[in-house]
Write a structure and sequence with these properties.
NAD(P)-bd_dom_sf, Sc_DH/Rdtase_CS, single chain, oxidoreductase activity, seven-stranded parallel sheet
């Protein structure tokens, strides 16, 4: 058992995808996990997973876009489980469409869940942790916090906002000499059920931009960050490092590359699903989707960046520079074709 053994850890978006993998990993660490999401069936199955892995879990249904629901859930958690040591934000929603095809209501809802959900979770956690002078908050970010891509304007905007918001809060905590710490984990494309339940206006089935990683890769990094929140940011996946470095070195080249490939690379040859969408209502209210999506055969189970980001920064930067150089060379070759 690790440092989270017996600690109360809150996870939003706990019923499926990355959040589901995170609560399983926390169970292996012996944590006492408070699971927040909307879907009754998914939440119940996730709590069972925590117990199977060796921890204990309790479910709290709440819409993270609603501050009062998040606050009341946190108050119940502290009353029933004890002081919250760690708060992990993973909940999100999205729309796969060109910006011109997204309605104001859809954009507002995506922003409310994917950005304000993190804001409200962070605010509630800080209100409880600051008086105690201890605690950790982990924000689940994305390579898209640094680089926007086509068809995901609402999601990319929210992830950029989370990064800026988190940096502001971190500096305030440092200025106050607070013992509460906040960190970001920037993820690559992950094989989750979101591509089955996301609101899509595309003709073909949406997919994560390769290379794709399994949710357990993300979960291990997020739990490690919860145990070591003193580092301001963790990068997961070679593609994340390449994206961040390429955007820093040659953003115009990345613009041109994404203009040519960004739309097709996010769609399979299959017809777009026309069933459930989780933008307004939980997709897992009556069905448990678990942690994995439908891309298991194409997904990586490990990421060297998870190990490297735990160690000396110069090693990571050297790898990042080399990865970026290779990525830029590849982009240049493709653009010349």
């Amino acid at each position: 058992m690790g440092p989270l053994n017996g600690r109360v850890v809150v996870v939003t978006g706990a019923s499926g995808g990355v959040g589901r993998a995170v609560v399983r990993e926390l169970g292996r660490q012996g944590a006492r996990v408070a699971l927040i999401a909307r879907g009754t069936t998914g939440l119940g199955a996730a709590a069972v997973d925590v117990g199977v892995e060796g921890g204990s879990g309790q479910v709290y249904e709440a819409d993270v876009a609603d501050y009062d629901q998040v606050r009341k859930a946190a108050e119940r958690i502290e009353a029933e489980m004890g002081p919250i040591s760690v708060w992990i934000n993973t909940a999100f929603s999205s729309v796969f469409a060109k910006f011109q095809d997204i309605s104001p209501e859809e954009f507002t809802r995506t922003t409310a869940v994917t950005y304000l959900g993190y804001v409200w979770g962070t605010k509630v956690a800080l209100d409880l942790m600051r008086p105690r002078g201890a605690g950790a908050i982990v924000q689940t970010g994305s390579a898209l916090s640094y680089r926007g891509i086509p068809l995901q304007s609402a999601y990319c905007g929210a992830k950029h906002a989370i990064k800026g918001f988190t940096e502001s809060v971190r500096t305030e905590l440092l200025a106050d000499g607070s013992g509460v710490q906040i960190t970001l984990v920037q993820l690559p494309a992950v094989n989750t059920p979101q591509f089955e339940w996301v609101l899509s206006k595309l003709r073909r089935h949406p997919q994560p931009v390769p290379p794709i990683y399994q949710p357990e890769v993300a979960a291990r990094a997020i739990v490690y960050a919860a145990e070591h929140p003193e580092r301001k940011e963790y990068w997961v996946g070679t593609s994340t490092v390449a994206t961040l470095m390429a955007q820093r070195v040659a953003p115009a080249l990345v613009d041109r590359y994404l203009a040519r490939t960004g739309v097709s690379s996010q769609q399979t040859d299959e017809k777009s699903p026309s069933g459930v969408s989780n933008l307004w209502d939980p997709a897992d209210e009556t069905t448990d989707y678990g942690a994995h999506g439908t891309f298991d055969q194409r997904s990586h189970a490990h990421s060297p960046q998870v190990w490297l980001s735990r160690h000396r920064r110069p090693v990571l930067l050297t790898l990042g520079a080399g990865t970026a150089a290779a990525a830029l060379a590849a982009l240049g070759r493709r653009l010349r074709r």
